[in-house]
Amino acid sequence: KLYGAEGAALFQQEPAQNGTASGSIAKSIMMSSKSIDEDNSVSWGRLKRKLMIKILQSKLNKSDKDKKTKPTKFVWATGGHSAAAGHGNLFKECYTMVLGQFAKPVFEAIGLDFEVRPFAMGATGSTLEISGCVPQVFGTDVDFFYWDYGMTTGSCTHCVSHWVQRAALLETIPAFGFDSRHFADVMKETRDQGFGVFHFNRREHDTLAKTFAKSSGMSLEEMNQKMPPNIRGMNCDKRDNVGSENCKDTKWSKYDDPNEPCNKRMHQQGWHPGWQAHALIGHILAQFLLEVLDDALREIHTNAQASDPQVFLDSLVKQQLQDVADFRAKKFKVTWPFEKIEKKPELSNDVIFKQPNYCSIARMPAQMRYEGILLGGPKDGDFMDYSTYDRGHKQTEEFVFGAPHEKVEVMWTEGVYQAHCTKDMLQIDHPDWFLGATQNTTPTLILPSDREIEAYGDYTQQLVGYVSYCRAWPGAGFDKKKELEVLNYDDSFDNGGYNITVNGHLVVDFIEVEGCIFLAHKGGYKFPKNNQGRFEFQFFTNLADKYVRFTTVMVW
After folding, report:
1. What are the DSSP calls for 387-428, one per residue?
2. In whole angstroms, what is the distance from residue 209 CA to residue 226 CA?
3. Nearest to residue 541, comparing CAs of 549, 530, 532, 552?
4. At residue 547, what are phi and psi to the nearest 5 degrees?
5. Residue 218 has what pLDDT?
6. 229 upstream amide cis, omega within 30 of 0
7. Measuring CA to CA, which residue among 197, 289, 204, 198 is closest to residue 25?
8. Count of other CB atoms within 10 angstroms of residue 515
9. Residue 25: φ, ψ to 5°
10. Could you read off the pLDDT of 285-307 as tens digits, one per residue?
11. Distances in Å between the alpha carbon of 225 and those of 131, 311, 347, 457?
12. Helix H or strand E encompassing 45
């Protein structure tokens, strides 16, 4: 129905077992990089083992009638840029949502809850603001991370390495997928450290797309008559939906009513893929994941140990822990350090890569917002429903410059939310921000809060006192005349225009690292903790009718 008989055949080849059989085109696309895994079996085996563990845990939970437990979850989280976020499309059309739509019923059939977190953010790379906040953005329970920041990360190998190393510290021992033509060395290192690593091969994906029937020269009426929906306009003169005008007209989905507001969407640029391109990627990822799941079920069915599920489960967990033992013991070298950190003897890449930290981030999407960790409130917010979590405050001049604010407030700006579309969600990534200060107020932020310690653990004794701060980028809906200039950190802290204290110590210097800055006081880059092992930030400006925005603070 979606791809026609010829296209469907590509998805219906014999399933792979033990990572050795040919499998479908999906397996070929995800496991073709010999530079990561020479025989294509190690990473497959690790992901299969993770799925076997989940299946056995679910079976044991159900067999214990005295134990009230939630369904065992498998969590897939995508991090990436605007294309990965589905900009220009309806949000439900982005490839991670398509993956969830097709994989969830199959997982549910065997007792697992499959959850997708399509947490890509527009104009965002694999940089410190995200890599330093992995649990806060994606959650602490992720089983599979999908990295899709290639367009916004360039050749910044240390940025990719830091993101992966911080994600790998999660207790879940996650697997990783990469959509990038680069960074094979990082992928191989991650695999050698004991994790399952997969590479979405764009060349093979592009070859697949070119096998679909050509649309060039056909009218829309001819396409509708002769082609299934998912390939109309995909194979054109140059690439998907590029060529003749009719090809371009198939790129974005539309309601039949020409006056429907949801048809008028922001971000429909040439570099953003349309709904068909997203659907193809989502179907490939779903097919791949379900093939590994099928292999896991077959092994459970045939394995002699499976007659005692608890014994079998214990053996699999032991194997998984053995694979990552050295990594979890922090016995790994920081292969691609931040060069600017290396030049500051007081700062340590070992700490920034390996040690636990805390982060408060206002940007969306972020799991700490949906779980009520940042602002309190419900713990089960839904990223598809604004009413299920605390959104903070709408930006208005009255609120910003009104009564003094004792604490740092989370703000959202109406102009970037595309609220004109009421039938569908268009995007969930929004540049929400913290109101740092106005002339009339010096708000306070404490990191970590009690809720953050409860959610992420008590690491206060391990903190060395590094403090990082990330500015908010100006964008649509902001009054730049009243916003304190933050594009250049030097301007922000110059002449007392904007100042920060940390536990009473005035910030007097900083070093910029991948879009954020590490702060320094007159005693250096290590800020002393208060009596509770925490950090109290105060923000202030002496400029009339100005306000300060930032998005993230982190402490190590």
Report:
1. GGS---EE--HHHHHSSPPSBPEEEE-GGGS-TT--SS----
2. 17
3. 549
4. -135, 160
5. 87
6. no
7. 204
8. 16
9. -60, -30
10. 999 999 999 999 999 998 877 67
11. 47, 57, 64, 58
12. helix 42-63
In angstroms, the CA 310 to CA 46 distance is 19
> What pLDDT is recorded for position 546?
81
Give the integer Cα–Cα distance in Å for 422 and 525: 48
Phi, psi of 468, rounded to the nearest 5 degrees: -120, 145
In the predicted model, is pLDDT for residue 486 greater than 50? no
pLDDT tens, position by position, 185-204? 999 999 999 999 999 999 88
| Residue 436: pLDDT over 50 | yes
Residue 241: pLDDT band with limits 50, 70, 90: low
d(CA 448, CA 357): 9
Q: Residue 395 burial (CB < 10 Å; 0-12/13-18/19+)? A: buried
How far, in Å, CA of 432 to CA of 361, rounded? 9
Is residue 191 within 8 A of residue 37, CB to CB? The reply is yes
- Cα distance between residue 382 and residue 2, in whole Å: 29
| Res 17 pLDDT > 60 | no
Nearest-angstrom CA–CA distance, 454 and 458: 7
Residue type, 265: R
